[in-house]
Design brief:
Elements: E1 6-11, H1 18-31, E2 36-40, H2 46-56, H3 65-89, E3 93-97, H4 100-110, H5 115-126, E4 133-138, H6 141-147, H7 161-177, E5 182-186, H8 191-209
Parallel strand pairs: 1-3, 1-4, 2-3, 4-5
């Protein structure tokens, strides 16, 4: 397939601030005349959002880790084929708040599912589509939980400190393993400082590709 667009993913533990940065980046790129598609995972399409409801519902507390991984892959498969690939084929910028690396971090490092199996599942679900750049907003678990004190936790957010520590460690390992596309930011920076760094990096990568 021929895809002339630009694919950006944001990653990080819950509460790190990545969703805020995704919104700011979208506004910046649109101000430069880009057509931007901003989506979230799990979700981003009608079917994928329905799967999201099942995945994150705290009432589904008996869900097995393998079921969780397969449902996430199903949501991702629908999103990729229905939204991401057509947008990239049309030359648009796609910003995804979480993508395939989240499964490696949460279900692999967090839940303990074998990474090789998850990588094969991801490859099938994404049809081999990978981000041009992955922006990892790194934040300590203590600070992330402090920021989320006033919100109601979904089923995965309720897993607690030790789980999130494993997830964060997984992201840090992936940032080293996939250093050619990862750009890591310290989530303790102000919103404005982080936004400026992200915009500069994205513009740099886009100019290299073009």
């Amino acid at each position: 397939m021929s895809m002339n667009g630009f694919f950006i993913s944001f990653e990080g533990i819950d509460g790190c601030g990545k969703s805020t940065q995704a919104d700011l980046l979208k506004s910046h790129l649109e101000s430069k005349g880009e057509t931007v598609v901003l989506i979230r995972e799990p979700g981003g399409s009608i079917i994928s959002e329905q799967i999201r409801e099942i995945l994150l519902n705290p009432a589904n507390d008996t869900m097995d880790a393998s079921t969780e991984a397969i449902l996430l892959a199903a949501s991702r498969s629908q999103l990729t084929r229905e939204v991401i690939i057509p947008a990239l084929e049309n030359g648009h910028v796609v910003i995804c708040d979480r993508y395939a690396d989240s499964t490696l971090a949460y279900q692999g490092y967090g839940r303990g599912i074998k990474l090789e199996w998850l990588k094969k599942l991801n490859a099938f679900a994404t049809a081999g589509v990978e981000p041009d750049i992955t922006l990892l907003v790194d934040l300590t678990v203590d600070e992330a939980l402090r920021r989320m004190e006033s919100k109601s936790f979904d089923r995965i957010e309720m897993e607690g400190v030790e789980f999130l520590e494993r997830v964060r460690s997984g992201y840090l390992e992936m940032a080293e393993s996939y250093c050619e596309r990862y750009f890591m930011l310290n989530g303790i920076h102000t919103i404005e400082e982080m936004s400026k760094m992200i915009i500069n990096k994205v513009e740099e990568i886009k100019s290299e590709i073009n």
